[in-house]
Amino acid sequence: MIFVSLHNIFYLVLFTLAPVFELRWSIPLGLWSKPVELPFVGAVSGFGMPLFEVLPIVVITNILLGIFLYFALDFLVRLFTRVQYIKVLYERIVARTQRKAKPFVEKYGVIGLAIFIGIPLPGSGVWTGALAAFLLGVRFRDFAIACVIGVLIATAIVTAVTLGLLNGF
């Protein structure tokens, strides 16, 4: 039983670290017992873990991911943009990120970045929020605050949807 639980925790952390999934997919994967249809992966059997196990794992993992990315992006960008294909892809992502995030950050500051991170839609989240902070020159302290608030917003929304608490909307 402990082995299965550690196995599930390991996969939950991996899914939370993945740029496409983050906690938007790892919360349903952790909570549901039924198969979860994941983009690029297909149906994955849910882990059926209790809420009090899933939420701390995905929240802490997502926040730590954001902090790591904030500090690692400069190095990673310089390293990977040496490859022409990656450079072109990166330039597209930069243009989209600046177009989406800059208005939020300029108008609302830290709270705008937190909302951008917290909106559980494709193209937002910790990965894109860290990239936006990097591109817009947001101070670490401000990013850290936005990251924590944004992750908590996303967690609340995704958990409510996963548990069916927003079915009336």
Overview of the molecule:
- The protein contains 7 helices and 2 strands.
- The protein is globular.
- With 169 residues, the chain is mainly alpha-helical.
- The model has no long low-confidence stretch (mean pLDDT 89).
- Strands 1-2 form a two-stranded antiparallel ribbon.
- 73% of the residues lie in helices and 5% in strands.
- The protein has one domain (2-162).
Quick overview of this protein structure:
With 169 residues, this protein is mainly α.
Strands, helices and their partners?
Layout: H1 2-17, H2 22-31, E1 35-38, E2 42-45, H3 51-80, H4 84-108, H5 110-118, H6 126-136, H7 140-162
Helix pairs in contact: 1-2, 1-3, 2-3, 2-7, 3-6, 3-7, 4-5, 4-6, 5-6, 5-7, 6-7
Structural class: mainly alpha
Strand content: under 5%
- Tell me the domain tally: 1
Q: Describe the main β-sheet briefly.
A: 2 strands, antiparallel
First-to-last CA distance:
38 Å
The total of beta strands comes to 2
Instruction: Please report the number of helical segments.
Output: 7
Q: How would you sum up the global shape?
A: globular
Helix proportion of residues, in percent?
Answer: over 70%
Q: Radius of gyration, rounded? A: 16 Å
Spatially, the strands of the biggest sheet line up as 1-2
Which residues form runs of ≥5 with pLDDT under 50? Answer: none
- Average pLDDT over all residues: 89
Q: What is the element string, with H for helices and E for strands?
A: HHEEHHHHH
Name a few traits of the molecule.
mainly alpha, two-stranded antiparallel sheet
